[in-house]
Specification:
Length: 119
Amino acid sequence: MKIKRELLDMILAVSKDNHPDEVVALMAGRKGIAEELVFLPFEGGRTSAIIHMDMLPLGMRIIGTFHSHPSPNPYPSSADLQMFSRYGRYHIIVAYPYTMDSWKCFDRNGREVEVEIVE
Ligand SMILES: [Zn+2]
């Protein structure tokens, strides 16, 4: 999976700004490169975000999801895995303290995947 550096910077900043609340968004883009976030209304607490897919702009290609963890644990919970299996192929979790060293990317089965950062 590939992600624009700008988007990764934004993900880290948004996560930090919302601490200790969790942030959930979709990652959208073209040709498998995540370029932008799509913030949608969601319900639920830290482990049970429900994304309303009918709010998605037409023509937007979803690559996966991103969400933050207000704890130092960057690994998916069982609720996260349920979300992963529903929206896109790649899923980023940013854990506290929301730095370049505190995030990971997973596939829909919760296996960690390599991410290439592109300019
Ligand atoms: Zn989570």
